Amino acid sequence: MAASAPLSFLSSCAANGAPKIAKDAWTGYGAVGDYANSAGNTQTVMAAAHKIRDGVYSTANLTTKKLDEVYDIIIVGGGMSGLGAAYYFKQNASASQKCLLLDNHPIFGGEAKRNEFMVDGVHLMGPQGSNDFGVPRKGTGSMTDKLFEELQIPREFKFQEWDSNLKPLSFGLDNYAHMTGVAESSLDIGYFFKKGQYVNESQWVNNMWRDDLARAPYPEKVKQDLLKWRYYEQTGRGGEFSRLLDSMTYKEYLEGVLGLSPEVTRYTDPVIGLINGAGADAVSAFAASQIGMPGAGRARGKNASSPLSFPGGNTAFARYFVKYLIPDAIQGEHTFEDITNQSVNFEALDRAENQIRMKMSATVISVQHEGNSDSAEHVKVIFEQDGTLFEVKARSAIMASGGWVNKHIIKDLPKDIHAAYGEFTYAPALIANVALTNWQFMYKQGITAAQWFGDGFGFSCNIRQSMIIGDYAPPLHPDKPTVLTFYMGAHTPGLSLAEQNMAARAKIFGTTFFDYEKQLREQMLEQFGATGFDPDKDIAGITLNRWGHARITQQPGFYFGLDGKPAPREIVAKGFGRIIIGHSELNGHQSWTGGVSQGFAAGEKALALV
Ligand SMILES: Cc1cc2nc3c(=O)[nH]c(=O)nc-3n(C[C@H](O)[C@H](O)[C@H](O)COP(=O)(O)OP(=O)(O)OC[C@H]3O[C@@H](n4cnc5c(N)ncnc54)[C@H](O)[C@@H]3O)c2cc1C
């Protein structure tokens, strides 16, 4: 096994002349392109947010610069919810009405952003967060069907082709399908059992679910329980069953109701920890069913397929919205190719003549009615941009920014909403994109995805079979560059939900870029050293995208309330006066469509007020 090279952002420079940019020792390398300054919550974004949390702006006498404009609607947050609200506005407002959208990141999209690399002349993209989507059936009239129609989003795609002269390998089309083994029939995944994890020597088992765990090193009872879990045909349906699931944790459901062994719970923990934000012992079984976890969700047969992902994940939807809202803001025509591949024209986002203006790197610090919320005619918004505090008015404000910040910045928030927000807990996540010069070490192992167990850097990674979009046409060959993507949460079974969230944030936010890089390289050496992995030659760049409040975590009762009390999300969703609250977490499980639907609903309520 080759020794690990000294560490110093060394693998964080794109090959072939792209700049070596070390933003800071925590944010690390942001890669190239429109998103180079905006990998997850950068240190700059986080520092601005922490000033709000720490009460730096809580004095009543802030010195502000007043802007003359009075907007019909101000939207706080430029993620899917905020962009959805802006889209609703553009479709339904009169030509004279104006809207201002404020976001604290250098670029719009919220959790739907991407990393771009140039490696040996090959342009590569990977998702920073929001990743997969389903294609809506044409003509159903659903929200997404209409959106695909109106924005002219294609429903059929071209993908990289696999050379039939190479050994047969299959790939996930997104970065989730490999995670539970449920879609294993559509991709080649290796499971790495470390020495001591049921085996005396570390070993790979490829595609272990395909022969019903026959080659997996689990004891027979664990195998039987894992298989029961995987193919469980639950018959519960409807509201009553949903309420039953929401009255207990997923662990209680698996072990107490289905009678499965704790090893099954442990197998599910990393996925639940990533997507639901805490271990299965703290998360509502209904939350697990919402993400299709076996046992609680509908059983999926052996041939479950992979959902789709654009090259930069759901970034594509954010870019479609922006192209529609402010056509000049993305160069080129309103085509799939230009919207995906052309550069953002940042200057066009905030032109005075725009019906919708978008200010980036603008952190909102205060939102408040001018007077009593029942009778006020305006909402006053204060935001910080480039060190200056600006004050601006609107007839209505949409808070599409997330509960963790709303409870600090809405100054006249009613007590019941404040208390309900107090019950929202959030988990962080870390998404690493590793640009590789080649991936022979996985090809030799016969896999395109990997999963491992216990401690480590994340729990799985994969190479997608990418969409080809015009000039964006990276090759699919083990000798050529690609992106290997890792999604990870951090859960600590045994602690309460809030404690798990705090521990996770301390871990993901308390580790420097250098330390993560070291962990990643050492782990890949341990797993792939035998098939020739050499970090110095094979890694061209690493980006870390940290999301402090990636997911709302859903404790039992989150969805339907417990003991006859209303669910906190229902209390928050009411909003008050001219302040409308709409962000994806009000749906529980978060998705790009959930964000957009919240945005539409908020847009409708806000327009009714102005
Ligand atoms: C790691 C990860 C993976 C995901 N994977 C998928 C997936 O595969 N498929 C899917 O459908 N969904 C996925 N999601 C979920 C989904 O994409 C999100 O729920 C949705 O995009 C969130 O939209 P939002 O607008 O509600 O929130 P956000 O995207 O968080 O947008 C809110 C915006 O408000 C900004 N903001 C916060 N405070 C302020 C302030 N004070 N002033 C100004 N701006 C502020 C934030 O920085 C952010 O830009 C994923 C999410 C994460 C984190």
Could you provide a short overview of the structure?
With 610 residues, the protein is α/β, with parallel strands linked by helices.
Describe this structure in words.
By secondary structure, this protein is α/β, with parallel strands linked by helices. Helix content is 29%, strand content 20%. The chain is built from 18 helices and 20 strands. The longest helix has 18 residues, at 592-609. The protein starts with 42 loop residues before the first helix and ends with a helix. Bound molecules: flavin-adenine dinucleotide. Residues 76-82, 102-105, 110-112, 129-133, 314, 363-364, 400-402, 405, 409, 429, 431, 547, 550, 583-584, 590-592, 595 line the site of flavin-adenine dinucleotide.
Give the topology.
Blueprint: H1 43-53, E1 65-76, H2 80-92, E2 99-102, E3 114-119, E4 122-127, E5 132-133, H3 143-151, E6 158-159, E7 189-193, E8 203-206, H4 220-231, H5 238-246, H6 250-257, H7 262-275, H8 285-290, E9 308-309, H9 315-325, H10 336-341, E10 356-359, E11 363-369, E12 379-385, E13 388-399, H11 403-409, H12 415-421, E14 425-436, H13 440-445, E15 449-452, E16 460-462, E17 467-468, E18 482-488, H14 497-509, H15 513-528, H16 535-538, E19 539-553, H17 568-573, E20 579-581, H18 592-609
Parallel strand pairs: 1-2, 1-13, 2-10, 7-15, 13-20
Antiparallel strand pairs: 3-4, 5-9, 6-17, 7-8, 11-12, 12-13, 14-18, 14-19, 15-16, 16-18
Bound molecules: flavin-adenine dinucleotide.
Flavin-adenine dinucleotide binds at residues 76-82, 102-105, 110-112, 129-133, 314, 363-364, 400-402, 405, 409, 429, 431, 547, 550, 583-584, 590-592, 595.
